[in-house]
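Before relying on records like the one below, remember that each one covers exactly one chain. Contacts with other chains, cofactors or solvent are not represented anywhere in the record.
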Amino acid sequence: MKTLAQKILFLKSQSLKALDQFFQLRPITDVERDGADVLYLKGLTPEALYTSYHDLLEVMPWLYQQGARRWCDVGCGVGRTCLLWAWLFEDAEAHGVELVPERLEEARSAARSLPAPHTYWIEGDFASPSQKLPDADVYFIYLATGPQLDALLTKLKRRSSPAWVVVVESHGDLKPRLQWEAWWLAPTATRFALQSQRHDPWLQVYRTRPDHPVLSLEDAWEGRSGLLPNELALHPSPLGYLLGKSFQRHWELVVEEFAEMWTMETLGLTWFNPQSIQGEHPPRQIEWTKVKLGLRRLPEDVPYRQWADWRRHETSLRYSTAHADGRRVKLRKIILSPVPCLEFSDGVRIQCQDLTNLEEDK
């Protein structure tokens, strides 16, 4: 039986292609999926899509020395990192979460062939509120972005015990996004040089802080129907908190700027820079220092919910008032004050009380 040092020397001496053959993996990339809203199905090389074994040969032994025994790759693809962890440490276990079943089946097949009995595979979307993360000591993040990343961070933040989070930069926006979470996801002084060409040449290790007092503040907010701007400002990272709603329906920002108050859905929110977020419904960029931001649940009244649905789906509409008519327009903005009104894609604003008809233009 090889020692850990012997295993590391063997892995370092092999090419990436040779190691895939050793682990009996096919690094499949393109996957046929009609109509699916899934990232990274086509157009990426294996080098871009999957983490190299060589990039983890220093951090994995270090984590094991810290007491880590359970590894979780969130978005594991064909399972490279999980198979590597399980092969290096025979008393450890690895969990892989993957949305694309074709890739996960490749991982399962390789685990059976090795064999790697202490590997566990979960087919699911970690952005789904119902998808729980496996209980692990280490979570590995690569290629997560947008609302999927926000969902993952929200779940990691709610862990009851500390965990290591290992990050490889993919697009150039992951580590800047994590700066907003530094109050509970603390970067350590530990980092490791990558062998692969990435946006950042360093693999960074973070540590979760489940005992942070702000988590109690967030818990108290969960039962609320909304937050005023002065309340939201109490948070050490208010924009990071709002991004935690980016994968949830039925929440919206209340934006106060230029003596107007209007709303933007949190669904699909993304970060733009350390002071700004980008919304989809409507498509606007919001800078924290230039507006006042509040948060509320979508109102239950029927007209407003219908307007919000039309805004989200960019539905083609027609409207009429006593003085004007419009066809094949889209609802861009719902303004709450000083006068409640709707703004359409043709530039027209109509006070809600003046609308005589608003319906889908089929």
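Residues 331 and 344 are 5 Å apart (CA to CA).
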